[in-house]
Amino acid sequence: MSSEAQQHADFSAIRYAQVWEDADILVPALALKADSVVLSIASAGDNALALLAQGPARVIALDLNSAQLACLALRVAAYTTLEHDQLLELTGSRPSTRREALYQRTRKHMDAPSRHFWDAHSQEIAVGIGGAGKFERYFGLFRERIIPLVHRRATIERLLTGGTLEQRQRFYADTWNNWRWRLLFKVFFSRFVMGRLGRDPSFFRYVQGSVADRILDRTRYALTTLDPADNPYLQWILTGTHTSALPYALRPEHFESIRANLHKLEWHQQPVEDFLDQTGAPAIDAANLSDIFEYMSEENTERLLARLVQAARPGARFAYWNMLAPRRRPASMASVLRPLDTEAAALFAQDKAFFYSAFVLEEVIG
User: Fold this and answer.
1) Does the pTM exceed 0.85?
2) CATH architecture type of domain 4-72+248-364
3) Contact 111/100 with Cβ under 8 angstroms?
4) In terms of DSSP bridges, do strands 358-364 and 312-322 run parallel, antiparallel, or are they unpaired?
5) Residuewise pLDDT in 10s, the chain (366 residues)
6) Structural domain boundaries in the chain
């Protein structure tokens, strides 16, 4: 099978220097065991590492983009050689004046292509590798050019302190949600601007309706129903770092388990379709599919899901996100793939990566 996304989008640079999908819902969704074999979209590597922390037998990370795999390779080298506080400095989660020195300690533990890639990106190293992607630069523009036209720094700091649900709702209604916020948000997160500055325009091929309106509604949810003080994704968007919260893979309580399981991780530059074509007997127990179906037609989504089922053991779980294009198991696959909608909905209600419209969890029927 060929990859539809590969035919339309540019995969020559870092698109995502961080994974913008919440591992706090991914990890319980996939419910890994000690003998689990996990397939994961690599992206920048954070969620493949979060799954590794669960101690499965094997995690296989795939990506079309060599730059994304360089991000994963650098993270693996950092977990291998650095201490936890140094890792946070390298990613940009914490301030640092020694990122180049930290990088030099890690580079010998990477493969040659990854070393060459990062040697040519010293500026990204200096400011923190978590800000090196196109998507992060897009959020940087929002933080540096748009937010100052709407709110003062003190207002942003107040938002990020959180509070009770009632306090958050009142603050949003009385202070945050002014006309400038709504107007500039809808312009910046429009299909046109996001397609050119944030995501590839081809990623909107199957999107209908207003992009900005949907994201604005989910943002309101993140600022009120969820607590900003616990949201590392929101904190990075508004401050360019992590203030009071860290993503799953960067938390201190997971550092040693990730480090101890690095030998169980492998990564390959190839489409999921090609990997599955090389798979013999059913061998997959779980799959983190990111938002891969966002970029596919309904027909290609069904073909890939069917191929995943063929490669999976009974009871295997597939987890993926919808952002703007609705994708789920088609009715034609009802005999082989079971939706776990109740569990998925409960997890999605906690999703701190708030710009997605749905979280999908499905199970292979044995």
Assistant:
1) yes
2) 3-Layer(aba) Sandwich (3.40)
3) no
4) antiparallel
5) 455 444 444 557 999 999 999 999 999 999 999 999 999 999 999 999 999 999 999 999 999 999 999 999 999 999 999 999 999 999 999 999 999 999 999 999 999 999 999 999 999 999 999 999 999 999 999 999 999 999 999 999 999 999 999 999 999 999 999 999 999 998 888 765 776 655 555 554 545 556 788 889 999 999 999 999 999 999 999 999 999 999 999 999 999 999 999 999 999 999 999 999 998 789 999 999 999 998 899 999 999 999 999 999 999 999 999 987 889 999 999 999 999 999 999 999 999 999 899 999 999 998
6) 4-72+248-364, 134-239
> How many other β-carbons are positioned within 10 Å of the β-carbon of residue 186?
16
Other beta carbons within 10 Å of 62: 23
Backbone angles phi, psi at 136, to 5 degrees: -70, -35
Question: Cβ neighbours of residue 186 under 8 Å, at least 6 residues apart?
Answer: 212, 213, 216
Give the C-alpha distances (Å, rounded to integers) separating 86 from 8, 110, 246, 286.
Answer: 38, 17, 14, 31
CB 92 within 8 A of CB 127: yes
Whether 114 and 73 have beta carbons less than 8 Å apart is answered as yes
- Write down how long the chain is: 366
